[in-house]
Write a structure and sequence with these properties.
L-arginine/glycine Amidinotransferase, Chain A; 3-stranded mixed sheet; 18% helix; Glycine amidinotransferase; AmidinoTrfase
Length: 387
């Protein structure tokens, strides 16, 4: 096997293997999403899209503009090829018609969403791949896009564990009625108080979580409570992974959506934090007493340059992909962040990716790692207090 950052002769000749314990070990096999057929979602209790300046005011939905889809796919394809040139095996999902109406005996939803952000749905822990519940009705059937990949892995790697969390019913009982109408009228401090108390859109009627709300640090899994992950989902994960230490993390952001843009592992002993607000004091103290350095990210270059139809925060800048402990893929326009992390000895691989944001996220969101070199390790030997 080649060393960090070099090119393997042909990744397709390596045996398929599911193995990934963290977000920084050398990457060998990854899934990169696609923008094909993505739609602006129809309204539903979990989420509302409102883009009046871009032709999709509240209550409307439909296919993303063709020019935006083409540009996003070009950047995704180029990124996939960049990874292949570095000796990394790349798989892609199989898009379906996301504009179609879908439903269960409990509900009907006028549209689906897309398959750009595989990280939201799939989690690798060791030799297990877990399908998350998802809390949007529009994303309930998204797992279908990845079943060909998962089936092939299951058929090839006899040690692979293929798991799926209980599919949620997503009845009205899973959501707080009128949440968005009230939440949008609150001031920043009131919203932060709701976040701290986890008084958000989801109820505790059933376990709900997105895979992208889970940060993997070997023996420790950190689960962020957010707009898409509830306490019941955290408790399910804690029981599902009894040999791991599973921690609930409360965000300090007014719109918490996925931990991978706010608390980003870089390598053992180093973690990047969204610079907008300090993380929970106990969480920061827990990392520091275990000799982790916390880097406060610089303000994103994208702060004043958000693309149309994007629901992502400018802090998506921190949504990067580790190729190994020394190499980071970062969106090409995020030069201040690249310079900041270069000072810590990282090789920075700039990747044009701004056009992908409106389709569901950044470089980390757009990928899902199947195989990384490495074994299970304990990075937090000093334990006391809440964590």
């Amino acid at each position: 096997m080649t060393e960090y950052g070099t090119t393997a002769a042909d990744p397709a000749t390596r045996p398929l293997k599911v193995n990934s314990w963290n977000g920084w070990d050398p990457l060998r096999h990854v899934v990169v999403g696609r923008a094909d057929n993505t739609v602006v979602q129809a309204p539903e209790p979990a989420v509302q899209r409102d883009f009046p300046d871009d032709g999709f005011p509240l209550g409307t939905y439909g296919p993303m503009p063709a020019d935006m889809t083409a540009e996003a796919n070009e950047q995704l394809d180029n990124f996939a090829e960049l990874l292949r040139r570095r000796g990394i095996r790349v798989d892609r999902p199989t898009p379906v018609d996301f504009s179609q109406q879908v439903g269960t005996p409990d509900w009907t939803q006028e549209s689906m969403s897309g398959c750009m952000p595989p990280r939201d749905l799939l989690l690798t822990v060791g030799n297990e791949i877990l399908e998350a519940t998802m809390s949007y009705r529009s994303r309930w059937f998204e797992y279908l896009c990845y079943r060909p990949i998962l089936q092939r892995l299951f058929d090839t790697d006899e040690n692979m564990r293929w798991e799926a969390a209980p599919k949620p019913r997503l009845t009205d009982a899973s959501y707080k009625p009128g949440f968005w109408d009230t939440y949008h009228t609150l001031g920043t401090e009131e919203q932060l108080a709701r976040v701290r108390d986890y008084d958000l859109v989801l109820t505790e009627a059933e376990p709900l979580f997105d895979a992208a709300d889970i940060a993997r640090f070997g023996k420790d899994l950190f689960v962020q409570l957010s707009f898409v992950t509830n306490r019941s989902g955290y408790r399910w994960l804690k029981r599902h992974f009894p040999d791991f230490r599973v921690h609930a993390v409360t965000s300090t952001n007014t719109h918490p959506l996925h931990i991978d843009a706010t608390w980003v592992p870089l390598r053992p002993g180093l973690v990047l934090h969204c610079g907008e607000r300090l993380a929970d004091a106990e969480l920061m103290e827990f990392f520091r007493r275990n000799d982790w350095e916390i880097i406060e990210a610089v303000q994103p270059a994208s702060w004043e340059h958000q693309p149309r139809l994007s629901y992502c925060s400018p802090w998506l800048a921190g949504n990067m992909l580790n190729l190994d402990p020394n190499t980071l893929c970062i969106e090409e326009k995020e030069v201040p962040l690249a310079d900041q992390l270069s000072s810590y000895g990282f090789e920075i691989v700039p990747v044009p990716f701004r056009a992908v944001g409106p389709f569901g996220g950044g470089l980390h969101c757009a990928t899902f790692d199947i195989e990384r070199d490495g074994t299970l390790e304990d990075y937090f030997p000093h334990r006391y207090g809440r964590y």
